[in-house]
Amino acid sequence: MIRFAILMAAAGLALSAPPPVVVENATVLTVTKGTFKGSVLIRDGKIAEVGEKVLIPPDAQVIDAGGQFVMPGIIDPHSHIAAESVNEGSISVSSMVDIHDVIDPQSIGIYRALAGGVTSVCVLHGSANSIGGLSAVIKTRWGKDAQGLLLDGAKPILKMALGENVKRPGNAVALYGDLQPSPRYPATRMGTEDVIREAFTEARAYQKSWKDYEARRARGENPLPPRRDLKLEPLVAVLEGKCLVHAHCYRADEILMLLKLSKEFNFKIAALVHVLEGYKVAREIAAYGAGATTFSDWWSYKVEAADAIPYNAALMTRKGVLVSLNSDDPELMRHLNTEAAKTMKYGGLTEEEALACITINPAKQLGLDARIGSIEPGKDADLVIFDKHPLSNFAKVQKVLIDGQVYFDRDRDVSGRAERELRKKALLDKAKQREAEQKKSSARRPQ
Amino acid sequence: MIRLLCLLLVAVSMHAGPPTALAIRNARVVTVSGPVIEKGTVLVRDGLFEAVGTNVAIPPDAWIIEGERLTVYPGLIDALSTAGMPDAAPATGSARTPAPAPAAPQQPRTRVRGPEDRPSCTSWLRAADQLDPADRRIEQLRSLGFTTAVVFPTRGIFAGQGAVVNLAGEKKAMVVASPAAQYLTLSTGGFLSFPGSLMGVMAYMRQMYLDAEHYRAERDRYNAHPAGAKRPDYDRALEGVIESPRILLPASREVELDRMTRFARDLKQPTVLYGGTEAYAAASRLRDAAMPVLVSLKWPERSREADPDDIDSTRTLEVRERAPSSPAALAKAGARFALYTEGQSGRDLKLAMKRALDAGLQPLDAVKAFTLAPAEIYGVADRLGSIDKGKIANLVVTDGELFNEKTKIKYIIIDGAKYEPAPEMGEEVAR
To answer: Which residues of chain A lie closer than 8 angstroms to B202, CB-CB?
Structure first.
């Protein structure tokens, strides 16, 4: 009887665990461990083995990628897809808000990013204010609910911002029909520094109030706990190194200001975002140890973004900065591989360095390089299969795997189009019929 | 003096009061709490049900209604309404609908710093105090068979406290239970005023309930040992929040239903969702979470002003097609739900109801969703929602199956008093 139960349990386990997957005959671009022709074995959603020859288990699902290229899933460290709200722009310190609350798993941007080979995304708060909200790191598991998208185990990430967006001097807003200047402080870059300094000063006092409370409790007293403050809690987490900071910035002067300010409060900026003038202060950024996440060749959309060059990524890389590329845009997000290729044209990064800008480097900036960003045993099986080399303009994504499961398949997408059209037509016909019926019944109604 | 008062009281009750006893005999009685009685009697005394059954002795002082060919239902409850509420905003239940304007612009305008300034908050407002019995919508609802509505102030984020009210009688006698719940919306002020975003409203609510917990602890501590202690500040916003036995959160789309179910756990408040348009896609999850939903009968439709050349997305079309199946899906899954009219009446309401029934909602489940279900959701099933001895005598008497297009409402009985549908409104209902 007991033996039977064990057998049943074993059978149950075998049923619940997905079968192993092997991607074979591909050119494998591991990014961190070189490039070779071979196979990848996936077990339980993780990469189990990578090599020129891997043992194929009898129950494995085999994907023949003959003549094709496999690379790690692309990581976009700065995007706003799938967020139902992006900015809490009404106040200058809005660290109480959290993108996790507003993830919309039905947002089509997720599928489009997936079809472009993106498997992990940091959905950031916008840049409307000096200290924005908490961000959410998701995987593009199209079809799952909001909780199912989250990359569990990701550290919280706080968005900060500098420059034109946050100071908005003289930006007129309609107030009861009249145009009036935005009443929000700050109006200058000096003011921005002040807002951040004040917020972290407040956070320190808050941190102390809790420490005092704990100390009194330890002495056997029974004090009332301090009022919990959702605005200050994330800032305390930053001070204690439990929360990463990604800071939107453009100009060299403001970049240096922020690096200095963070040293004053003894916290670390994990990544400078946009950082279009980063090439001017690359040595200082490298010495500080902040990452930089930038565009390849997108600038001049505002004054502070004017002094930019396409060599930014390459120059910063050569000075020892950890550089990644991001999209900040649902369209650009669909061809980050092309953006990576531009760093080879402008500044001569190697193939591996270029690919690192959209894989392992953003993974490091998000604190997730132990999980994602390269094809190595033990990491999440997030893989993209391209028909040509991903750094070619002509490469098209064929399949995308996340945690070893196929979430995008080009053939399936193309062959399903006719059926989707038919479904839509049926719905349209029904809607028309309903409208006609309603008209008929309202015509019968006496006027 | 006392004798004179007594005399006066008697005179008043003889003049204006309903007959003390009323019996409907030989009618089909849908008790909702028990099986349907095919030929039964309902005896009402002093505004309460005194007896229900096949074998009820009718006392000599009772007025008698012959119930042959009539069906008796518990009075219908509109689970979310603004009837009797002066200038309330519509209760649409989605974060995507435009924000209702604030009740009155605050002059001079001060900049809101965050949750601590309690923006868009009138949590202390009570529908029971605001109620205007002369509001035409009260008579309109009554003529549709509604004896009760749960009415709310609806402006702002913490809009205020609802009340369960009977839809007839003097104002002071109308209120059945108050406060019923705190009405919450997700309205936002853009870049001008906190909260300016969906996540901002949610953060605000979270902070508010944390503050309420702290406020209560501080107050209790002070009240236990006031001597030598600093007295805590008084905060009417938190008082209003603490007084409410449950909260109403808007959730219409599938993602909103999931999001607000999770959010309610976060807030640690007994919660009811309202909207429910896409509940067809989330019915089993709502059941598993034991999350009650108020489903609006205003099904999504293409706007009449829409450009005829615009083609809607497949998703939009699908939602319009499937939304009326939400009540049926919830009933099938065994989830708790009630229905509300969202201000519709006459032909619109009949059509909306027909679509829900055509989509598989069983007529008895529909009756329950307008009677016992809302009574249970608001914690007043001990006095409303079914025809049982001791409960408030609210009834709707029809000449056929309720929600059938040809059925006419004959009488509405509220607190034991008999009303007939207003003629012009009855006409509208009958068509």
So the answer is: 97-98, 101-102
| Cβ–Cβ below 8 Å for B189 and A90 | yes
Give the integer Cα–Cα distance in Å for B201 and B193: 11
All residues of chain A having their beta carbon less than 8 Å from the beta carbon of residue B187 are none
Instruction: Indicate the angle between helix axes B423-430 and B346-358, nearest 10 degrees.
Output: 30
Q: Which helix (H) or strand (E) holds B151?
A: strand B146-151
Q: Is the ipTM of this complex over 0.95?
A: no
Do B82 and B9 have their domain in common? Answer: no
Residues A290, A396: one domain? Answer: no
pLDDT digits (tens, 9 = 90+) for B286-329: 999 999 999 999 999 998 889 988 999 999 999 999 999 999 99
Same domain, B106 and B220: yes
What is the total count of domains within chain B?
Answer: 2
**Best CA proximity match to B375, nearest among B144, B74, B173, B52:** B74
- Four-residue CA torsion sign, A51, A53, A55, A56: positive
The 10s digit of each residue's pLDDT in B86-132 is 877 777 776 555 444 444 444 445 678 899 999 999 999 999 999 99
Q: Which domain holds residue B361?
A: 76-384
One domain, residues B13 and B119: no
Beta bridge mates, A247: A160, A272
CA distance A355 to A358: 6
List the 404-423 stretch of B: residues with Cβ below 8 A of A.
none
CATH of the domain at A404: 2.30.40.10
Q: What is the pTM of this model?
A: 0.92
Question: Residues near B428 by Cβ (< 8 Å), separated by ≥ 6?
Answer: B345, B346, B347
Measure Cα distances from B404 to B68, B398, B400, B407 in Å: 18, 10, 7, 5
CB A274 within 8 A of CB A166: no
Within a domain: A160: yes
Domain that holds residue A168: 74-372
Say if residues B108 and B229 touch (Cβ distance below 8 Å): no
Same domain, B391 and B377: no
Q: Is the peptide bond before B108 cis (omega within 30 degrees of 0)?
A: yes
Put simply, the answer to whether A424 touches B302 (Cβ < 8 Å) is: no
Q: How many residues does chain B have?
A: 431
In this structure, the answer to whether residues A46 and A189 fall within a common structural domain is: no
For residue B389, CA distances in Å to B163, B167, B416 come to 24, 21, 13
- Tell which of A316, A347, A372 closes a domain: A372
Confirm whether A436 is domain-assigned: no
Helix locations, B83-191, DSSP H? 127-130, 136-143, 171-174
Rounded Cα–Cα distance for residues A382 and A373 (Å): 8
